[in-house]
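job 3f2a | input accepted
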Amino acid sequence: MINPFFQNDKMRVFFSSSVKIIITACILAFGLLTEDFVLNAQNIGQEDLPEIALRDTSYIRELNDRAADLIDQSNLNAARDLIDEALQLAILLNDLDGESYSMSNLSGYYIERGLPDSVLTVVGNNFSRYENTEKEIHLGNQIANAHSMVGNYQHSLELYLEMRDLAIERGETRMEIGITQNLGNNYKSLGDIPAALDNYLRSLEMAEEINDTLIIAVVLDNLASINVNEGNYDIGEEYLMQALEMNMQINNLGNQITNHMSLGGLYKEMKQFEKAQSHYDRVLEITEYLGNTLSKIQALYNIGLLKLDMEEYDLALEYFEESLELSKENNIMIGLYYNQNGMGTVYSELGEYETAIELFESALEIAEMANAADLIIGSLENLYTAYESVRDTSQAYIKLKRYSALTDSMSRTARDEALARQEALLELRTERENRALLEENLRIQQTNTLIATVLLIVIIIALVSVIILLQKKRNANALLRKQSEELSQVNEIKDKLLSVLAHDLRTPLSSLQGVVYMIREKVLEKEDAVKALSQIDAQLQQDINTLSNYLQWAQTQREGIVAELEIVSLSYLVKNALFEIERGAKNKQVILQNKIPENTYALADKQMMRIILRNLLSNAIKFVEEGDSIIIESKETDTAIELSVSDTGSGIPPEKQADLFKPFNYVQEGTAGEKGTGLGLSICKEFAEELGGSISFESKPGKGTTFTVRLQKATVEEPVSESV
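job 3f2a | predicted structure (724 res):
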């Protein structure tokens, strides 16, 4: 049987969500919630009073309203300062209604956090102070909730009845409904199922009269709990799904915890363990977000029960023990009862009956303190079974005799009659709702058919006309915008390209012209002329690379470029690339090392790969010193080939690395004053991605740079032609 308390979260009462608030730790530390604090607050320095006196009771109500709204949204931290200020002002201005409102918010906060003991010690001791105030019924209901949470069911029953009568007397219908459903919870915990059902159905009927979704959802969950315990799983699941959907629509996280807890218990009873675990996990997620200690205790306990059913005893004990420790830390006596019973059941299954008996006896003491018939019966049944197992017949007889006396006093006939009455009332309610809905639909249909038809025709004509006009306008605007953007991009590219060409090619060409003049006029000696020719050769190669990069980049920006993928020999492409830059390397006395294996193939475009290799090798030569090395090597995986070009040069400054692959990004001059286009690496990136791969780099200033091009791997059975 699913236990009534922890499975359905009956400690979470309906009206806690409307008055939830948090109070700052410093307020608690200085005794804000005691009579001593009230006296202390009235003695605050007189220099503060003129400013405070300007804030009247309407401002205090505004603070409390805002705080309550924030708590309804589970935004407890934001409400913290508001409740602090409201409570202090209410005390200073002798506004008892404002003070009771603040205390009501504080009580709701503790209930939402799962700290009922704090409600009893902080608020319960001062309840008489707030008699005949606006929030008296709210406070009384919350104190009763707290008693129910800790298992003081008789105390909570008396206070619920008193507050319900007061709500009826004052005409506070919504409070009457909420307290009525809380009474259902209380009677259920005391084992009086007929009284519980009567109160649930009464609160449901009243909630439907005022169309209150929140109350309806809470009552449906409670009805589901009873039906699940009675084995009516289909009815229970239907109620729970309806309740969860309602609470999700109004974003009530607190009541969603209850729904998920109940669904977990339902699926556990149905032996659908994975479904049960998923709902309990969802409870832990929400409680972590809300900081709800009590719900966490319940969820851990229920997961312990789940693991017990799955015969995972070690895990069951871990969850029971964690829940038990939290119950001790927060003085949740009912938590001690259920977890001790759970642990006792585990030890019974393991054959450790002495330990089990100690735990069951301790749980029985707590149940007797709470005067909860169902809990007492459960403990007696467990103890009878345990004593029987250790052959202690005298103790077993005592427990059995007491168990029989209690169960006989709880008439099964009354329970069956109450359940039958519930089903009859619910069927009648459904039939009445359907009939009323049908009649209303027919009346509306008869009244509005003609008007709706005429309006529909007019609207359709108007909509079609508007849609046609809007579509034409949208198409024209889109075409104009596209053409404008394309024209702007073309002009920008043209201006940038012409500017760069004029700047970067004029100076080197002028220098070349001067060298040619000196050679022709025989100003230079033979040795100097040979040296000058070598320099001209290197400069021409650099300028050709520069011009090629500009033209290649301009083409990709203007027309785009599409890769023609085929199987290529990387070793052959690298050899050709090294041949092209060999003269530049010799001029700088750079050591070139080709470590690419002969049979290395990739899926790539030959022309694109030539451009990528040429740019990476030219860059490497540009930033190395005499005697440095450039190494080309590869690494293969199952699906890719990583081709790397490494140098031992100056490296890339850290501040330049983020924009390295952007067009027209000049890093720095080469070690011999070489200048680049700012486009080479941008082209490499575009081409690498077009080939279905990527390019990346690692660089440390003063230690060199490695560029890595990742390509698609190709596997060949026969040699591939090495023509380029």
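job 3f2a | The mean pLDDT is 78.
job 3f2a | closed
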